[in-house]
Amino acid sequence: MDTNGLDDTDDLPSMPPPMVAPSMLQVTTLRLEHVAKILQCDRETACRRLAGGDLPGLKFGRSWIVPAAAFYQRINELAIEQAAERKVAGRPAPMLGSASDPPPRRRGRERFRPTGF
User: Fold this and answer.
1) Which domain holds residue 55?
2) What is the reported pTM?
3) Is 97 a member of any domain?
């Protein structure tokens, strides 16, 4: 007993151990820089996609934390959606190196070429 007459081992409700799913122990997260690198885009573009809700992520202060499993699942969903849209639109899959393809356009400004040369 302590000085106020209470026993240190009074019947306190025991707290059950925290429930943690086994899959939760292996959660990996991606930072904004990683997301941008995976998507091969600018950091600001990735930030806009996260802020707009196109990609899953959590905003903590000024930074974004993206659960890797949710990110890759969303990328798979987007790929399937876009493939279905292309299929409905009737656009055939591009053939690599097809003979019927027009030659690639020249980029930039057309240069002046005097006649006779």
Assistant:
1) 27-88
2) 0.54
3) no
